[in-house]
Amino acid sequence: MTILSLSNLTKRFGAETALDGVDLALAAGERVALLGHNGAGKTTLMKLVLGLIPASAGSVEVAGHAPGSAIARGLTAYLPENVAFHPSLTAREQIRHYLRLRGGDPSEAGAILEKVGLGAAADRRIGTYSKGMRQRVGLAQALIGRPRLMVLDEPTSGLDPVSRGEFYALLDDLAASGTAILLSSHALSEVEVKTDRLVVLAHGRKVAEGTLEALRAEAALPLTVHLRPRKGRGTALAQAFPEAREGAGRLTLTCAQSEKMALMARITGSADMMADFDVLPPSLDDIYAHISRRAA
Ligand code: ATP
After folding, report:
1. Other Cβ atoms closer than 10 A to 262
2. Greatest CA separation found in the chain?
3. Residue of the CA atom closest to atom 28 of ligand 1
């Protein structure tokens, strides 16, 4: 089932086109990452999805409803990039308050805070919380009412690696229960493994969309191969691979995807000179830089 549907979505601010003809669909349970440099149009897209600003052209539908309508708002949760809460309230008081506002049961606050790892700190004032803890209060707030669509603006900025892992585990649970998740991020290495699909925006246009594998294949960037020589065989190995660069006790070479098998055969043929080797596919950062350059 399609939860979010954008069709030819366009937003102009005076002479500036912030979003230009974007089509996008999110099915229930799908996790989609929105990538793009500063000013690419990510926040504008999110504001349109939330119905905070009107589109100049095109349309947005949230489960078939107009963005910002009472039904769409009831189905959507939003976590802004910088969440601000009243510093003198405890997390429990804050979440109870939100539950009341959304017509929920305030006694559920404890269970929601437990879910985001704030059970033990629930009765401390938010003013004493670390940035990561405040981010979790934001997520707790977004979990209220079992949203069908969750929109998260750079949700993991400021979180340490362990907290990021826990955060994505929560998103996995939500997605498994059918919530569609649209998140923006600059942390490419994490969205690489934590989302189902990537959408790259540049100057308001969608310039790439697909799984990481699909984008990797489309970019056709070379692989990097490291060869580590056996003791005393460094010179022989360097002669066998004259195109390689030497450094850090190993040889480094790059190889087009189409020549991978031929290189493997050469590596196998020189196995007696090698202690080890590694084949590194292009990273998401490489692919992203390639797509951005192409778009420019
Ligand atoms: P960042 O990663 O820095 O948050 P972004 O991808 O979210 O960037 P947007 O905030 O959507 O980018 O901005 C897209 C473009 O639209 C920018 O050129 C920005 O200056 C412009 N823009 C956004 N909001 C307004 C506004 N209210 N008035 C005029 N221009 C705007």
Report:
1. 11
2. 74
3. 13
Nearest CA to ligand 1 atom 19: 39
Question: Count of alpha carbons within 13 Å of 189, Cβ hemisphere only?
Answer: 3
What CATH number belongs to 2-210? 3.40.50.300
pLDDT in tens, 27-61: 999 999 999 888 899 999 999 999 999 999 999 99
Judge whether 2-210 and 220-295 match in fold.
no
Q: What is the CATH number of domain 220-295?
A: 3.30.70
Count of alpha carbons within 13 angstroms of residue 215, beta-carbon side = 24
> 3-state secondary structure string, 237-265?
HHHHCCCCEEECCEEEEEECHHHHHHHHH
Nearest ligand 1 atom to the CA of 41 is 11
Among the atoms of ligand 1, which is closest to the Cα of residue 81? 4
Terminal CA-CA length for the chain? 35
CA–CA distance, 270 with 259 (Å, rounded to integer): 17
Where are the domains positioned within the chain?
Answer: 2-210, 220-295
Full-prediction pTM beyond 0.85?
Answer: no
